[in-house]
Specification:
- The chain is an alpha+beta fold and about 600 residues long.
- The chain has 3 domains: about 280 residues, no CATH class; about 140 residues, Sandwich (Immunoglobulin-like); about 45 residues, no CATH class.
- The protein is built from 19 helices and 21 strands.
- Strands 12, 13, 16, 17, 18, 20 and 21 form a 7-stranded antiparallel β-sheet that branches. The protein has a 3-stranded antiparallel β-sheet with strand order 4-3-5, with no helix packed on it. Strands 10-11-19 form a 3-stranded antiparallel β-sheet.
- Strand 3 and strand 4 form a beta hairpin.
- Helix 4 packs antiparallel against helix 5, helix 4 packs antiparallel against helix 17 and helix 16 packs antiparallel against helix 17.
């Protein structure tokens, strides 16, 4: 019997049992830990004593250079605080309500020490201890082994570690990490003289080590030959650990791997990379910028020390961690404040902006300067949008696009361009789960990409990204395109235009969904209160620009300063669609600013032509 037939038989049995049991609403999907079993280090393979907590590393790698040392920069990052993240715990609570035992899968990345301490067996996270809350800590990363052994490159010690595993990962992703069971540390330098044993490892300098956690596919949802995604058989491990065949929850590593950055590097003139950098290629080039400093208080000064900033986009998450753990001696508020500032700086360097007036509209080009899609990472809540203000001579706002109300945390979505990803439930998934088809916040059950308008990086190729589970959906990008153009109508009396590109980690809708869906614990309410206490997840301005508007005459499609018979041909070309989609000159034919050139605009054109 083929795999698909087995899956339908098993799921049909469970569905019928649910319905005949008197339930016709959403059901907890009865998955087991076997559904989320993945290759690599398993609970019990490494003792808790073998991987020490970060305070042991602090003795040598901390308290001597707060701005550059590994320990202080790490503890102000989301890597250092991953085990304390209220957003993650609220997300995991609702995921566990939808899918039994999925927390075991979630904690692989977010609380990886739970696979050393064994606390991941309690899938709700209720037994996590101080060692687990130490985040993605120093010793954990520095005892990681490249699962793909490379003769002459990998440390010889890795071969024995891999031989001792029941299943060796063939891919980077889904936190299929391999830890040295002895805790032997690995580092980038061969000339270090630490008081512990170590080996030099190329793995820590490559983007592949980041891919271990920054590519996530739902191991319980698999792509079929026809391209659709379907739930796996219950109580069976995934038929494929290739993330390209699993439903995409995060594809940051894949986006980078298929970009120009990973394939030769990109010269960004020092935008990223740290001191003296020009060409950037690896994840670490941007997220662990190079500096001249010491990595250990008694070690040599190095001119290529990778600062352990790990700055990403989630300055707001660091903000709510700082607030939630006020007074906790294990949480350094100054380090968190520095981490927030670095995250804001990272976001502000991730995009650039070009403005061009086109008769009665402005073209806004948002350019992706990063090595992956923007925004990237966790798909729920994150978005970037364009805010445009058309101002008159006294700076009064004549028209605004993409207005965000700080008091209500509501965005005028209909008026602007939003770069984001939404997942959903197919009719198939809706029938099985009881949740409505379409866009959903039940990410653990999603089997459809409803929207992915995020801007790709340099080197984007449609076929390659689609094959890897990272397609553009609901928008068109040409191969090689790493920017997006939007057109905004300008009122006649506009003298100046202000444009800002904003980033937001969470939306009001998503925060309220996490609060309202949670019937298990208080993490949904806690997160909601933290959201209220931190300006409701206010957007971070990424980049801004201004444009002085040159005088234009509505209806003058050929730009000769007159509305005449020759302009009529442009109306005929433009009249069947919105202004942004027509030919050159269409921007001048939208008289009423409704982005649709129709009979109302033709009447206005006739009036301009006759001077009436």
């Amino acid at each position: 019997m083929r795999y698909g037939e087995v899956a339908r038989k098993v799921w049909s049995s469970w569905i019928l049992g649910s319905w005949f049991g008197g339930a016709a609403t959403a059901q907890l999907v009865p998955m087991t830990m076997e559904d989320f079993h993945l290759s690599g280090t398993q609970i019990g393979d490494v003792s808790a004593e073998a991987v020490t907590t970060s305070d042991n590393c602090m003795a040598c790698h901390g308290n001597f250079d707060a701005a550059n040392e590994p320990y202080n920069t790490w503890r102000g990052s989301l890597m250092g605080q991953a085990g304390r993240d209220p957003l993650f715990y609220a997300q995991m609570a609702t995921a566990n309500q939808d899918v039994a035992n999925v927390g075991y899968f979630c904690m692989r990345c977010h609380v990886p020490m739970s696979f050393v301490t064994g606390q991941a067996y309690e899938v709700d996270g209720s037994t996590l201890d101080a060692a687990d809350r130490d985040g993605v800590n120093c010793h954990f990363c520095h005892s990681m082994v490249d699962p793909i052994y490379r003769p002459g490159v990998s440390p010889p010690e890795d071969e024995a570690v891999l031989a001792g595993l029941a299943d060796v990962p063939a891919y980077y992703g889904n936190s299929m990490f391999v830890l040295d069971p002895t805790g032997l540390r690995r580092g980038p330098y061969g000339d270090a003289s630490p008081p512990h044993t170590f080996v030099q490892a190329d793995f820590l300098r490559r983007g592949d080590v980041c891919g271990t956690c920054h590519d996530v596919g739902n191991a319980a949802v698999t792509r079929q030959p026809d391209g659709a995604y379907r739930y796996n058989n219950l109580n069976e491990a995934t038929p494929t650990e290739d993330l390209a065949d699993q439903f995409p929850l995060e594809r940051t590593y894949t986006e980078w791997k298929l970009s120009a950055f990973a394939n030769g590097g990109v010269d960004l003139g020092g935008r990223f990379g740290g001191d003296g950098a020009s060409v950037v290629s690896t994840c670490g080039d941007c997220h662990m910028p190079r500096t001249t400093a010491r990595g250990c208080f008694f070690g040599p000064q190095r001119d290529d020390l990778a600062r352990h900033d790990f700055a990403g986009a989630s300055s707001w998450v660091l903000q709510i961690i700082a607030r939630h753990y006020q007074g906790d001696p294990e949480v350094d508020q100054a380090a968190l404040a520095a981490g927030q500032a670095k995250a804001v700086s990272m976001v502000q360097r991730a995009a650039s902006l070009e403005l061009e007036q086109q008769c009665g509209s402005v073209r806004v080009r948002v350019i992706n300067e990063s090595g992956h899609k923007i925004p990237t990472g966790h798909i729920e809540g994150r978005r970037i949008w364009v805010n445009v203000k058309c101002l008159d001579g006294s700076s009064a706002v004549l028209r605004e696009y993409g207005h965000h109300d700080a008091a209500t945390a509501e965005l005028d979505e209909a008026s602007t361009t939003i770069y984001e990803m939404h997942v959903g439930l197919s009719e198939y998934a809706s029938f099985i789960t009881g949740y409505p088809a379409g866009v959903t916040t039940h990410m653990a059950l999603a089997d459809v990409i409803e929207k992915d308008t995020r801007i790709p990086p340099r080197g984007f190729h449609n076929a390659a990204y689609a094959a890897a589970g990272a397609p553009a959906v609901g928008i068109e990008y040409a191969d090689g395109q790493y920017w997006h153009d939007s057109h905004f109508w300008i009122p006649n009396d506009t003298e100046r235009i202000e444009v800002t590109v904003n980033y937001q980690t969470v939306t009001r809708h998503y925060i309220e969904a996490l609060r309202d869906a949670n019937v298990t614990n208080d993490w949904g309410d806690t997160l909601y209160q933290l959201w209220l206490d931190t300006e409701k997840g206010a957007p971070v301005p990424m980049v801004s620009a201004e444009l002085v508007v040159e005088r234009f005459q509505r209806g003058d499609a050929d730009g000769d300063g007159r509305v005449e018979v020759g302009d009529h041909a442009h109306y005929v070309q433009c009249r069947t669609g919105p202004a942004a989609g027509g030919s050159t000159g269409c921007e001048c034919m939208d008289f009423d600013g409704d982005a649709d050139i129709d009979l109302d605009d033709f009447r206005a054109f006739q009036a301009a032509f006759t001077g009436s």
